[in-house]
Amino acid sequence: GQVIHLITALTWRSERSPDDSPRVQFGEPVSHPIPHSIPYSIHPFAMTFRTENLPGVSPTTPEQTRGFVFNHSMLRIKDPQVSLDFYTRIMGMLVLRKLDFHEMKFSLYFLHRPSGDSAPSDEGERTAWTFSQRGILELTHNWGTESDPDFKYHDGNAQPQGFGHICFSVPDLAAAVSWFDENQVTYVKRPDQGRMKDVAFIKDPDGYWIEIVQPDLLKNLGR
Asked: Residue 198 in contact with residue 174, Cβ under 8 Å?
C-alpha cells in the first residue's frame, strides 16, 4: 500500500500582493498525512525549498523516478594523455576507471573530484560504484584522433552553437585564477571581464569551456 508519513508543518496559502507578486501567509501549525510520493523535507520542523515554479515545471516528482541520479557528463577528447594531464594535474580530478572497447576502437575514462567515500578496489565493483556517483566526468577517446594533426572536435560554442560548458565551483576564485595563470591555462573570460562579474571561463585542451565559480560570490547573480 501507499506509505504515509505524518509531519507537523505550518499551514500556508499563496496570495497575490497589490503588485501581483506571490505572497505567502502562514497560519497555525497542523499535522498532515503526507503521501510518500510527494517530495518534502525529512526534517519535520523546517520548510525547505523544493523547486522554482516556472512554466513547464512539474509540480510533483514522479514516484517512478525515485533513486534517479545525475551521474555523468561526457566530452569527446582528441588526446587522452593531454586531457588527463589537464583534468588530474590542473583540475585535481582522479581517474576512477578506464574502459577499453577494442572492437569499436574507443576508450572511456571516468574522473571525479576526491570525496570522503572510497571507491572499491575490485574493478567490477568500482565500475558499478562509479555509475552510482554524482558529478562524474566521462572522457571518450576514439582511437587514432591523437595522431591526426588536423583533427578537432566542435566545442559547442562556435557556430552553430549547442553544448555550452561544464562547471567547477572553487573555495577561492582568486587563488584558482592564480593557479590557472601559473599553469598557462587559456581563458574565455576572467572574473573581472564582461558584464557577469566573479565568474571565469577557461578552456580545456580540446577547447571545451569550463566555468569557474566561487559560490558565496554569486548570491546576487541574476537579480
From this structure: no
Nearest CA among 143, 145, 130 for reference residue 100 = 143
Per the annotation, the verdict on 211 as an active-site residue is yes
Q: Per-residue pLDDT tens for 1-33?
A: 444 444 444 444 433 444 444 444 444 444 444
Q: Say yes or no to pLDDT of 59 above 60.
A: yes
Which amino acid makes up residue 214? Answer: Q
Instruction: Provide the pairing of β-strand 187-189 with 4-16.
Output: unpaired
Query: At which residue does the C-alpha cell 573581472 appear?
Result: 192
Could you tell me which residue, 166 or 4, shows the higher pLDDT? 166
Q: What is the distance between the alpha carbons of residues 101 and 122, in angstroms, rounded to a whole number?
A: 19
Catalytic residue among 15, 28, 125, 211, which?
Answer: 211
